[in-house]
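Example: M20 aminoacylase family protein.
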Amino acid sequence: MAASDPRPAAAGATAVPAAAHIDDDLTQAMQAWRRDFHRHPELGHQEHRTAARVAELLRSWGIAVHEGYGGSTGVIGVLDGRLGTGPTLGLRADMDALPMPDAGTHGHRSIHDGIAHACGHDGHTAILLGAACHLAAKPDFAGRVVFIFQPAEEPLTGARALVEAGLFRDFPCDEVYGLHNNNCIGPGQAGVRTGAILSACDLFEIEIRGVGSHAAMPHRANDPIVTGAALVQSLQSVISRNVNPFDTAVLSVCQFQAGSAINVIADRAVLRGTVRTLSREAQSLVLSRLRDLCDGTARSYGCEVEFRHLLSSPPTVNQAGPVEHVKRAAAAVLGAGQVVDPVTPLMASEDFAYLLDHCPGAYFFLGHDGLTCHHPEFDFDDTLLAQGAAIFVTLVQQRLAA
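Written out as structure tokens, the predicted fold is:
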């Protein structure tokens, strides 16, 4: 598949389309959809109500719909332009919420205890719906748009499920694009960069099995807490003494669980944590050193130490050509001075990375004012709805100009 412009320049081609305008009626509709999704959040692979509403709206606009894609709740919409054949662009939004309380006080706070749209996926879904509505009403482009409404981004399993189900076989795309709200850049700005924009994510669990005993007789024990404490200390050297200083990586042990009584030496301890890396090389190196240190600690302390790799996703890596296309569309909508390139990458992770592993594309940020994602009072900034939809539509119009 082409990495930048899959079409040869056409003689006498028309001028690059100007920025799309999202009218007030559609903006109000997007806000209503977004707040409805916020009130009815659903966890990954359980987005049944959300997916049904998305499919209903797409069909009402004459867009071909494929439901239940990827074995769960994925929704794929397909729209062909009326100006003839051309490239195919994929536009993606994530639909799932987080397993956490919604502490907001607004009228559209979650009605489900312990589930909240605290990351902005309600907004992403509304943005892509707005873009789909606008393009369906005015399909003045040459080519095809594939609208990808993805489940289960938060557990980092939804995009992979779509790819493994044959997303790019059934709906071949020349390029694919996605976005996310980000308060690390200012309101009214878009941020993008070539290369890694978000980190890989690897979750791990380490079980240490020793010998328990009475706390007053430690010589009869093989204390897994002592072994675990030594291992936690050793792990701190993985980044500082193994990863290239010009690369970036984070290793955090976030759980250390052992024991049930204050006067009993436990026979088992469990460590859990995460690794974040911006390159595949650093990702592979850190995971290898983790395993080595577990093996060495087991030999040194005489405990059994088992390393379990629970989950892995790659870094989100943008290609140069699609980045330029995002910049051009965002500049048309927001103004040239409002595009931040290169934006500072985040050590958060995104399973959009799996889509970029199989198709050229770019992931970009929309700046917003307010709380950081995953805060219990987080609520998506509705001023981003028209901006995001306009950028998506402008991107389509510019890339698929006849």
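The chain has two domains: 24-194+319-399, 199-313.
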